[in-house]
Please model this.
Amino acid sequence: LPEDDQFLAKARLPYPVVILGRRIQNYTCVLEAPDCVGRRAAEVLLDAGCTRPAILHGRLLTHTTANRMDAFSRTVRERTGQDPAVLVSPGLLPVEGAATLQAFLAEGRQLDGLFTVTDSLAVGAYQALKRAEIRIPDDVAIVGVGDYELAGYFDPPLSTVAGANEAMVREAVPLLFRMLQA
Model:
């Protein structure tokens, strides 16, 4: 959350730290490739035949979620000539994502593909779509981010795009060891 970023920016931790997936001033940080996740999510939805993709994100964005959103929108625009619908949730909780998607649908707006910048928002999207009797993935395909350990237990299982976690860890571990030896 952005509040976490603000806390870390002010904190002075007395031990070496490498932060994954965030850019925090005065810390060593390892980031996912800036456009990897959003671009890949757009490709998955568009390759599945989605013609009305949308993105669901929280009102407050971290550097990482902003990059995901921008890359998704750019890829959709490049491939379709149109911008995706943008749904802004007040937060990242499943209940907030569900309410945001319910309001979108209540306005009569339509989508056939949805990218959620976090898997927690995908949980809410599933709930809202099921309440509206919209079938997943037949009517709306969903791609989340994070490879949430419960994604396989969704009905149907959630498709996720991981944030290049293995590559970030491969980069972060040697950095941390160098910091410990210094």
In short: The chain has a mean pLDDT of 87. The first strand starts at residue 18 and ends at 20.
